[in-house]
């Protein structure tokens, strides 16, 4: 019998992940926000397609809501703020309005995410429609208040209906990407 009964036992060595693994995790974490930003810029670019710029708020709201519920680390507060500022700059809104509204949407989605994750798709879509309608009207109110005149309401209604219609296809693509990002080795 050896004098030290646990001499053969070695504590488990925890090595830090390799640089490539850390960069891969960072890329997967930033991918949803970065793709949303690229999509916003591409939709804002002059393409000759009439009305394509009207898709920008709906795509961004759908992205912020979806990723805030299903993968909040990929849609961080900083990313949501930057997306909101990007929309303010592209849409010529008063600086900070979209950022503030998107941060509210992100906060609500993040706070209630575990309840939202238990809902079926139709119920979650209804929740999104209600939240995005409230967000559209809040943007309208803030822009009206900051410009000291009532803005037209038709664009708000159109934007709300467009965002509601964009969520199902966005959620389908987002669900596929979420599964792919969750376990990328299975899909090689």
UniProtKB/TrEMBL annotation:
Pfam families: MreD. Its main location: membrane. Keywords: Cell membrane, Cell shape, Membrane, Transmembrane, Transmembrane helix. The chain crosses the membrane at residues 26-45, 52-70, 76-109, 121-143, 155-177. Coiled coil: none annotated. It is found in: Cell membrane. InterPro entries: Cell_shape_determining_MreD. It is a multi-pass membrane protein. It comes from the Bacteria. Belongs to the MreD family. This is Rod shape-determining protein MreD.
């Amino acid at each position: 019998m050896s004098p030290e009964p646990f001499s053969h036992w070695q504590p488990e060595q925890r090595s830090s992940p390799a640089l490539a693994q850390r960069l891969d995790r960072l890329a997967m974490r930033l991918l949803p926000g970065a793709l949303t930003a690229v999509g916003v810029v591409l939709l804002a670019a002059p393409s000759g397609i009439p009305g394509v710029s009207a898709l920008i708020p709906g795509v961004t709201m759908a992205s912020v809501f979806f990723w805030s519920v299903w993968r909040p680390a990929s849609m961080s507060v900083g990313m949501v703020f930057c997306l909101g500022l990007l929309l303010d700059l592209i849409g010529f809104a008063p600086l900070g309005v979209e950022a503030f509204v998107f941060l509210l949407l992100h906060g609500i989605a993040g706070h209630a995410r575990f309840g939202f994750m238990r809902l079926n798709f139709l119920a979650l879509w209804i929740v999104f429609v209600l939240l995005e309608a409230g967000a559209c009207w809040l943007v309208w109110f803030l822009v009206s208040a900051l410009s000291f005149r009532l803005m037209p309401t038709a664009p708000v209604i159109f934007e709300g209906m467009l965002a509601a219609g964009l969520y199902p296809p966005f959620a389908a693509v987002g669900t596929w990407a979420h599964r792919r990002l969750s376990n990328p080795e299975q899909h090689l």
